[in-house]
Amino acid sequence: MKELDFDTTWQNILSDIKERSKVPSFRTWFEKSSLENIKGELAEINLSSAFAISYVQSHFEDVMKEVLSEHVGSPIKKITYSESKKQKKSKQVIDPDQPSLIDLADRQKVPVVEQVKTNSSSTLYDRYVFDTFIVGNSNRLAHAAAQAVSRSIGSAYNPLYIYGGVGLGKTHLMQAVGHEVLRQDPDKKILYVSCEVFLNEFITAIQAGSADRFKKKYRNVDVFLVDDIQFIAGKESTQEEFFHTYNALHQTNKQIIITSDKPPQEIPQLEDRLASRFAAGMIADIQPPDLEMREAILQRKCIEQGKEINPKLIRLIAERVDSNIRELEGALLTVMTDLEVNNQELNHDNIQQALNRLVQTKRKSDRPSVGLIRDIVCEFYRINHEEIISARRNKELVFPRQIFMFLLKTELSMSFPNIGKEVGGRDHTTVMYGVDKIFKELKKNIDLRDEVKEIKSRFYSV
Asked: Annotated binding residue at 89?
């Protein structure tokens, strides 16, 4: 057998494996992988983690042997795996209430998005990039359309209209386009807003006599991303302004991407002229994920959090939670927290019991509200409402604030940006850091586990 260039051969092999396999998010499992050696009928493969090894063995090994044999020119009957050595992290001084993007990405093992220039009104969340979007049968069309748009803004699918239920990844996909456009050209102006923000700013502009400033902001962009357009229904003046904004952008070949919970023709009290324009481009729907995709989502989440869980236990959670991605990720976090708080091992019986408790909690009609959780946390730590959302950062306030954030995430499955709004308008990265800090502290602090159990018992007994 002739001497192989392992790097080139491995890239060709990966390309063929990806083409032949139908496993969601192929890139997740082979990121930073390499072909280390070929010895007769044995191939040695290096993967990023023990978790990736477990998944690749169960989902890819047969096709890998087939493709390896073709490229090597002789039968490969056995594959051995090794795990990449983790790089040592340099020590850094971290602001306790405001970690840097690099620190967060390193701790959570998610792709780092370069900080690029954006329109000052644009809010693109760092994690919402194509690399972290899990692709499956339920969202493949929308994903392909979004990628096509990112490569050719203003000409491919304009507008792009993505619809689907809550928590299925519409905002993620929309913002991924914005990030990719900025990666290609940092000078592009991207504007992301929810329909509610557009509505409120329009009303404010009319009341303040600043309509010109409003028009300049919304019509002087290269990519306009509008979330939850269904909330414009029935609001005649706002629809009128949106119609003119849409026309101004579309006529100059600026890209428009819109999300909604339903197709344009089904939005009640939406003007026909808007519905027809929304339908004139590409309409793509996102459906709830199937079992295989739910497993891939949970496995990716575990990798981000630096946790290794047996794929059989991942499947157990994926089989029980089949609604949407947000609830799926929330269920994983809740189950993990439940086991940590109760100091239980990660095994089938304990996960099953934690899932049963989660289902029972969701069935309760008196599920805690944001206000109830805030009230009980404030009462427990003897602080008032103003203090928990204030800008003050002394220890006696920061810690209860982080507990509040943690409970909003684990009990209500709220997004990091929405939690930030409830805690004095804090940035989502601050919330991510606070939740992560409490989660880690629960592993080693028995007293904190007891505190969290006591707080939870209070708002579930009200």
From this structure: no
